[in-house]
Request: fold
Amino acid sequence: MSSLDALRKYFFAHDKQKYARLVLLYLAEMTALQATDPDIHEEFMDGNFVVNKNKNPFCAIGVDHALEHINRIMKVTGGLVGVTQNISARERFFLTAPELSRLAEEAHMMAASPTATCKEHHDLSLAVWRRQKENIAQLKSVLQSAINPMKHKGEDLTHTITKVVMPAEVQTDVCNQDDIGQQKYIKFVEKRINTNEVSIWARMKKVKLKTWKSARKSVKQTG
Reply:
């Protein structure tokens, strides 16, 4: 909740208008959840908002993510393909596929399948460690050959790799995006939340901040 609240100003600054509108509603509903739905609030406080597919620590996933896993199980050869146009076949498939998946998982457990008996977090494997070590070495190499952002003392906004200095308008927007987004957020709340002056769904004017990507645009010169 606190992390999402800290990000709201950036949705306004970078014209993520759907997020800008709906995140405010979401935060308001979640803040009032203890009063509006105390049972759901208690479940959330007990940590029952994720799904654990195994007993490994730090492997819980969101409910929507878990549902995508179920959908993936059904999207196999001979699965969803070919039954979507037949209503009766499609209904039978969606009723039986999750049950067949459960039975298959139980069979893996009974047979002590390696895929079902993994006892460590996937990020603790030697392959992951080796890849992470290689990535760190590559990052150090880039920083040594380019501008180290931790040691750069210049006042200009400079691209780390190309060493190109950003134009003044890009520097202004990038450096002031926090204030710009906060001001847009305050105006939105004043006109669309605290009063009925403007509908929350009314059209919003885009900020169109200039970013690093803006400096790469081709400019045609005539004459």
